[in-house]
Amino acid sequence: MTQSTVYCIDSSALIDLKQLYPIVTFPGLWHEMSELVKEGRLIAPREVLKEVVGDRDLKPWLRQNKRMFVALSDEQLAIVTDILRDFSPLVDFAKETADADPFIIALAISKKHEPQELFDTRKYVVLTSEKLSNTPTPKIPNVCEHYHVECLAGSTALTQFFRQEGWEFWNTPRGPK
């Protein structure tokens, strides 16, 4: 029996990826990210797309990988309602565009409840650059902890993600200068 990990990625992780590992400088990394999308192992709610669609550096990659963005289901909407009831400070209700945070967590929870293949089970992990909060204002990792959802979070989240996937990137020498 094999278990594969599906990552529900937050806009903060996508933005950090772009800033720390620019697409033009780290094409191998972004190729691997696209492969995860093709395998259905890198997903996000459409609300994440709404948060990052204006980023001109990410836009071409987002366009090529639009299948990663999942439409909101009735089950996810019910979970979002529960999250907002229990963790209302998670979102800023004054914002014009909805915060994606509760939708990311709801996606991971709902996918975890879907029927699985007999010999290919999947675990769902939230990937965010947000850190666990010690204040009354919760962050994604706090809510994940409450709902028992695995979460790669904070400044080491991307490194943990690369290690879990077994990724190593090497500079290919270009020859004498």
Describe the structure.
With 177 residues, the protein is of the alpha/beta class. The chain is 43% helix and 14% strand. It is built from 8 helices and 5 strands; from the N terminus they run E-H-H-E-H-H-E-H-H-E-H-E-H. The chain has helices spanning 11-20, 27-38, 46-52, 59-64, 74-86, 101-112, 140-146, 157-165; strands at 2-9, 42-45, 69-70, 120-127, 150-152. Strands 3-2-1-4-5 form a 5-stranded parallel β-sheet. Helix 5 crosses helix 6 (101-112). The longest helix is centred in the middle third of the chain and has 13 residues, at 74-86. The radius of gyration is 17 Å and the shape is globular. The termini are far apart.
List keywords for this structure.
177 residues; five-stranded parallel sheet; 14% strand; alpha/beta
